[in-house]
Every structure is written in C-alpha cells, then in structure tokens.
C-alpha cells in the first residue's frame, strides 16, 4: 500500500525515527551514523538508509546524520512543523482520556473542543477544554479551524457522525470506533484499535 508514492510501512516507521532522534537531541547528541542509530533502534542500518533515501537521504558519507537537522526534516515530512486543531466526538472515558493527555499539545495537536450527545456534559469542560452538545458541531466547524476530528463514540453512531463531519469540511478522522468508515476519497482516516494490537500480542505469545 502506498501514499504519495511512499509505502505505508515506511510512513509507519517515521514516528519511531522521530522519537529516537528527539531522545538523542535531549541527550545532546549532535550527529549519529546509521549504524549507531540502527543499534539503538534494533533495526538494520540499511533499513534506515533505505527509508530515509525516499525523502532525500539527509546523511553524509563519513559523517552520518546531523541529529537536529534530521529531527526537523522528519517533523516536516510528518507535518509536525505546523499546528493541528482537533475536536473529539464523544466525551466518555476514551474521549476524556485523550483530552487529558498533555503530550499531544507538545507535538502541535491542539484539542479545541469535545462534543457529546449527553446533555449533562454540555457546558462543562475537561482540563479547560469545553464540552459542547452535538447540535453545536456544524456551527463550531464553520466558525473554527478543525483539521482533525477524533471519533470516540460507539460504532453504532460513528458512520452518521463521520458523514456529518465530512459534509461540513473535515478532511481527517482519527477513528477509535470499532467500525470501518466509507468516506469520500479526499478524507484521510486513521483507525486505531487497541484490541487488535492486543490480539497481535496474543498471537506472538502463542508462537513462542
Ligand atoms: P463511553 O461510554 O465512556 O463514552 C462514549 C461517549 O459517546 C458517551 O459520553 C456518549 O454519550 C457519547 N455518544 C454516544 N453516541 C453519541 C453520538 N451519536 N454523538 C455524540 N456522542 C455520542 O465509552 P468509551 O469507553 O469512551 O468508548 C468510546 C468508544 O470507543 C466505544 O465505541 C469503544 O468501543 C471505543 N474504544 C475504542 C478503543 C480503540 O482502541 N479503538 C479503545 C477504547 C474504546
């Protein structure tokens, strides 16, 4: 599977490179060879070179990678060099946990509002983030910039809500509801299913 000519497997590895480079930066490391990086990350040096070559390489023979520069370039590739404005649909356990998680903000993902059909939640807030009623969804999106909508609602509601979101212009959905969404081609959807990850762990335990 490819996106903009780059395989999804490569794209899925970029956040990990970004995390390791961030740690190296914090440790004050200025440059690193693909070999040293490969040892840290438990992948092969050729895999690192192959992945990064898709974006222009960034390394220099005999020097390796400049950590700060590579960190910045990967941030650019991932689109982390700009702010993303998020709304979360569903202010239950998951929606509130996501709103509570401070690390998103440090990466430029700003949660601007939670939306829920439960009228008891309307008008309250989570960590200062307002909780709105669902009737406020379209007016909010028309008035505010919304780059990403997070679906933290039951699957029975997800399809209808996703349609509402896309009809008023939202073009990226982070979907936690356990259902596949059939949306226009220009809408990007990233499904996150923790239970699928757990099942993969179970499979790997069985193979041992
Ligand atoms: P919850 O029951 O605590 O919260 C769900 C919230 O959605 C409630 O506040 C409810 O009022 C609201 N809601 C229901 N229908 C709605 C609609 N049509 N419009 C707006 N709000 C609506 O449930 P929890 O634990 O927060 O889980 C939420 C969803 O996320 C569930 O479908 C669950 O299966 C899923 N989930 C997915 C995970 C994953 O890894 N993908 C992990 C945990 C939960």
Output the keywords.
208 residues; alpha/beta; Arc Repressor Mutant, subunit A; Rossmann fold; 7-stranded mixed sheet; 3-stranded antiparallel sheet; 9 helices; 21% strand; elongated; binds 1,4-dihydronicotinamide adenine dinucleotide
Number of helices: 9
Rg (CA only)? 20 Å
What is the overall silhouette?
Answer: elongated
Strand arrangement in the largest pleated sheet: 8-9-7-6-10-11-12
Bound molecules: 1,4-dihydronicotinamide adenine dinucleotide
The chain-level mean pLDDT equals: 93
Look at the structure and name the CATH superfamily of the largest domain: NAD(P)-binding Rossmann-like Domain
**What's the structural domain tally?**
2
Instruction: Give the amount of beta strand, in percent.
Output: 15-25%
User: How many E strands?
Assistant: 12
Question: Termini, distance in Å?
Answer: 29 Å
CATH arch. level architecture of the largest domain: 3-Layer(aba) Sandwich
